[in-house]
Amino acid sequence: RVTSGFSDDDILSIFRKSIIILSAPRSGSTLMFEQLSKQGSVWTIGSESHVVFRLFSHLRAENAALNSMALSEAHADAKTRSLLRRCFLYGLQNSSGVRYLEMPPQQRPESICFLEKTPRNALNIPFLKAVFPASKFIFLHRDPRQVVSSLIEAWGVGLQTGRFVTFRDLPNWYLPGWCFLLPRGWQAYRGRSIAEIAAFQWRASNQAIIDGLAPLAKNRWADCSYTDFITDPKSAI
User: Fold this and answer.
1) CA–CA separation, 154 vs 188, rounded Å?
2) pTM to 2 decimals?
3) 71, 82 in Cβ contact below 8 A?
4) How far is 220 from 203, CA to CA, in rounded Å?
5) Contact 116, 44 (CB under 8 A)
């Protein structure tokens, strides 16, 4: 109801300048998101988009067999595209925390620079291109040793507390749950060590990003290493 005064074309126009951060989990994307969201021209929903995607049960996984969390263009049917954009519009806020829909209509910008981030984006580039057709991407990558080490530690925390668990119902899975994103091919890691699973997640995430960006014009994406970002954040930003 709150967004009923906006047509689908209106909303698509608002989000025509969208920037999406892509990375493997534990690669520093939260830090990048927080720093970029402080820029005066950037709008976000105030957090990662988990809260939005959880509203759509059919976007939980690739299919009913839970083969992965990867979403294709086929998942982005017209109704899903419309509702998803409306959810983002509902939560949209600027760097000062002022919500777009609470601004007087005459003060609302016709289009904004929208920043979106969640590690799951790594697997969902075809889907995201359908939802935000003019989007640009930032590929954030980090030394695999640092990522895998962080993932191993976080898996331990997740299995004890449930904090990072994304699935508890994977078929024939040997642990109490699966943490972080679920790439295709996870079934081969039944009974394997957490270190092997973590390395698989790093490799699969980055490969999905590389493959997803390959068809795009170079002016639609940029890459940044985590080391460069923390060494000279001003230049990186």
Assistant:
1) 21
2) 0.95
3) no
4) 23
5) yes
